[in-house]
Amino acid sequence: MIMTNVTTMNGFFLMGFSEIRELQVLHALLFLVLYLLALTGNLIIIIITTVDQHLQAPMYYFLKHLSLLDLSFISVTVPQFIDISLINDGYISHEQCVLQVFFFTALAWAEVAILTVMSYDRYAAICFPLHYEVIMNPSKCQWAVIAVWLSGSISGILYTSATFSITFCKPKIIHQFFCDIPQLLKLSCSNDYLGVIGVAAFMSVMALICFTSIVISYIHIFSTVLRMPSAEGRSKAFSTCLPHLFVVSFFLSTGTFEFLRTTSDSPTAFDLMISIFYTVIPPSLNPIIYSLRNEAMKEACRKLLLGGQFTRKKAFLSSC
């Protein structure tokens, strides 16, 4: 089902994954399951890292904000897609699309930033354990999180202002399940999209700096861990580093692949699947990944799910 006057309408038309009604409902249900999984998992992490005395270190403080970002990130696109799939109407207003682009780009960059901060935290904890509480004191942790959210907001403003300064003169059909910037650029009939290219180039340089910082941190981390005489010490270090490394690798690799590949006027099922892998899958899997190898997280989850009591005492980051 395609609207007849998609060129002159104020909003946009999201094509989604299929025009077959039965498949639209099936996709809506699958996305609903993933959304509920992400919602539950990230809320559990936010709760236990707030109330459990054993999870007040900087690592868990940053993990709480990562979960908050994941929860917000998946809420930008998935509820809207579920709604348009169930009512069989892909129309999205201009204002909704603007907000979606802003929050999507802001939260995506903030996620890159918080993952970079988390890698530095692991580097400080493992390579400089005696000075860790000085390096990552509560004040510095709070300023790091403020910088993460602020940089995300700046990224969102830059992308949104550049994207919607474009004159859209082609049929306003977006071959995606959300307002995707590459798809929006294809609706331009002139070169007024160069501002978006400039913003993307600037943010790519910043992302490369973050990626380089993460790689350098992990080179030092693994070098230090492999020199540890205690097998228990190595296991404990890996249990906190490997989940973070997996999340970083998955998020950045899928995002980079999506950014570098050329967009098509008639996207294939593979193109749409890739978009799911960097928009929906990471927020759903991150809580599971961070809980698998971390005994403190698993114990806190058991307390929460089985009705155990949390006792709060003064801890390193209790003031945060």
Automatic annotation (TrEMBL):
Pfam families: 7tm_4. InterPro entries: GPCR_Rhodpsn, GPCR_Rhodpsn_7TM, Olfact_rcpt, Olfactory_GPCR. The chain crosses the membrane at residues 25-49, 102-120, 141-162, 193-221, 242-260, 272-292. It is a multi-pass membrane protein. The keyword DNA-binding does not apply. It is found in: Cell membrane. One of its GO terms (cellular component) is plasma membrane. It comes from the Eukaryota. Residues 41-290 form the G-protein coupled receptors family 1 profile domain. Its main location: membrane. GO terms for molecular function: G protein-coupled receptor activity; olfactory receptor activity. Gene3D superfamilies: Rhodopsin 7-helix transmembrane proteins. Keywords: Cell membrane, G-protein coupled receptor, Membrane, Olfaction, Receptor, Sensory transduction, Transducer, Transmembrane, Transmembrane helix. Belongs to the G-protein coupled receptor 1 family. Odorant receptor. This is Olfactory receptor. It comes from Chrysochloris asiatica.
